[in-house]
Amino acid sequence: MQAVIWKRPCVLALRSCGPFAACGGSGSFSFRNGGRAPQRTFTLRVINSTGSGAVVARPSSARKSKRSEGVDGKLAALRQLFHKPGLQMDAYIIPSQDPHQSEFIAECFMRRAFISGFTGSAGTAVVTKDKASLWTDGRYFLQAENQLGPDWMLMRAGTPGVPTISEWLTDVLSPGSKVGIDPFLFSSDAAEELKHTLSTKDHKLIYVYDGNLVDEIWKEDRPKPPTAPVRVHDIKYAGLDVSSKISSLRQNLVEAGATSIVISMLDEIAWLLNLRGNDVAHSPVAYAYLIVEIDSTTLFIDPLKITPEVTVHLKNSNVTVKPYESLLLEVERLANCGAKLWLDTSCTNVAIIDAFHSACNKYFENLPKRSKQKGIKERKKLLDAKSIDSEMEGPLAIHKASPVAIAKAIKNGAELDGMRQAHLRDAAALADFWAWLETKVGQDKMTLTEVEVADKLLEFRSKQAGFLDTSFDTISGSGANGAIIHYRAEPDTCDIVDDKKLYLLDSGGQYVDGTTDVTRTVHLGEPSSREKECFTRVLQGHIALDQAIFPENTPGFVLDVLARSSLWKIGLDYRHGTGHGVGASLNVHEGPQGISYRYENMTGLQGGMIVSNEPGYYEDRSFGIRIENLVIVRDVETPNRFGGNSYLGFEKLTFVPIQSKLLDLSLMSPAEIEWLNNYHSEVWEKVSPLVQGDVHEWLWKNTRPVPVHSTA
User: Fold this and answer.
1) Which member of 280, 561, 680, 689 has the lowest number of beta carbons within 10 Å of its beta carbon?
2) Whole-Å CA distances, 439 to 79, 105, 558, 614
3) Could you give the angle at the alpha carbon of 213 between the alpha carbons of 353 and 83, nearest 5°?
4) Are residues 126 and 260 in the same domain?
């Protein structure tokens, strides 16, 4: 699947919750109403900002949408809520996220899609009293153009001259305006950044606690929260038991001077507890929170999801279960007990952090005067020294990246073995599929739609042992649809797959032992010279990255140029990252590691991580090309180790033929052709024992060596 840009800063920031800190409010919430209990009135927490200055917003032009029915009424209804008693504001921001900052979310949290009509996985809608704009990245520009109604302006994020959300708001709103957000849907970092930028015109950021405004419009049509049971992830695939993982995490707490930590990322909870869920399509996670203390572990989840088997599993791991909606009360209890609470501000929603800070304030307000003065003095000393004393009196928030993210990203031996085995079975399914498609379209001239082709691929995958689900919605794009980077074919509007156009297929599977993600682009007829040149240059970038050798802990952005260099030589590029992390029988997009031109992700690559290698090229309204393999970061023996550094390279996980007839071999060096031939030799060796008959013959034909000196 096309690479996302992982945003999770690895920074340490200490914030005292003493009387001199600006701490927010608190509240309780219920999952069955989007993360909070229903109320008749709105409660606001105003975050004051000061400052001056303006940014001139230059919005991107937007092509008018083919879809507009019903959206206008939703906007009007939303704007009416701006003036409800107790709620006076001038703008409301609707992000894509759920309370856990997930990329892929349950249907009940798809508020941005409901209000705007845009269904891509990334984007933020902003509605003022007279304007409605949507920001999304380059993967979704074409999709957003097609889906947004005439009352919406598309903001192409990252394009020169296009303002950020907060810059746009400071420009279009009158000074002193109020901007509302749902604090359960914004990370603390995101809220702080928004508050800072809004301060340029003395705007106020408002936390709307007692109900999401979009839910007020959605009403009974809003899907119910998921209640599917969770399951135990077998130790033979997990590699480490829960007790060992929790023990390592507690060691991290001790080293950081913390006494407890809140884990809110769903895949981190699933990995830590060796559990898998079914709350989010294609992602084996369940909605839950986790608090780990030095002497206890508490899982906050809907009890209906806990089966007898899971109950025994958790009991054996000394994990207590409490209702999902009781999380904030537990956070307040920790403050009252003087906890040193580790909070990852990049992914923990601001409602949780607000609750802890507010409880900290109350703690200090209730101290005797002498103890209060001592607490203030100790905390000031702490902030000045940037060190932590676990014996210090009173609660403290330790803002630091979650240690679970890196622990999960570096796969153990069992996880790597499972990923290897899952990829081989997946490769066999893809060989079945491609042999079938070439026969039906290339030879029999059968008319097949993009949806029918994707459904057939699912049929082949479903026959493989251990298959559970697809790892994301299959991207089945023929011709111009392939240029829509995250295209989703729909039965009523999809194109046909024929021998006249390029066909891009990006797909993956969830297996009991691993997660796959692979993209191939083919032509079932005769490709044009333009298509062949573009395809060849994309492959050259793929090869260059695959062959990279680099020092341990090199950030992914350092390698990104390798995948783009061949395209850059003729003035071409692509609007997405080159590689994303992948979980082991978990989320297909995993952080914090990644390979992208965005240099803010400083996470170093380490042995055992898994990333995708997927350069591409997209000619708008014409065709799309992407070639994607998953690879394991591994140790490499080098004749020298400058500075004592270990060096790393990549081990391939994906073994699916790359269509040779799409290559312009005159552009390729002998070394690049040798790479292709060696890769196809590996594909044949590993996959041929898993297929039979016509598929075996197809695999043989599509893995034959390309002549090194050919000038086709």
Assistant:
1) 689
2) 55, 37, 42, 27
3) 110
4) no
Residues 208 and 264 reside in one and the same domain: no
Predicted model pTM:
0.88
46 inside domain: no
Residue 233 CB partners (closer than 8 Å, separation 6+): 270, 274, 275, 276, 585
Residues 158 and 134 occupy one common structural domain? yes
Cβ–Cβ under 8 Å, residues 226 and 301: no
Secondary structure (DSSP) of 441-489: IIIS---EEHHHHHHHHHHHHHTSTTEEEESS--EEEEGGGGGSTT---
Total tally of structural domains belonging to the chain: 3
The domain in which residue 651 lies consists of 410-694
- Cα 152 to Cα 117: distance, rounded to the nearest angstrom: 10
Asked if 668 and 574 sit in the same domain, the reply is yes
Q: Taking the C-alpha atoms of 252, 256, 260 and 266 in order, what is their torsion angle to the nearest 10 degrees?
A: -60
Q: Are residue 559 and residue 686 in the same domain, yes or no? A: yes
Give the DSSP H or E segment for 420: helix 413-437
217 shares its domain with 239: no
For residue 599, name the pLDDT band (cuts at 50, 70, 90): confident
202 exposure class (CB count in 10 Å sphere: 0-12, 13-18, 19+): middle
710: pLDDT strictly greater than 90: no
Token code pair at residue 363: 């703690």
| pLDDT band of 85, cuts 50, 70, 90 | confident
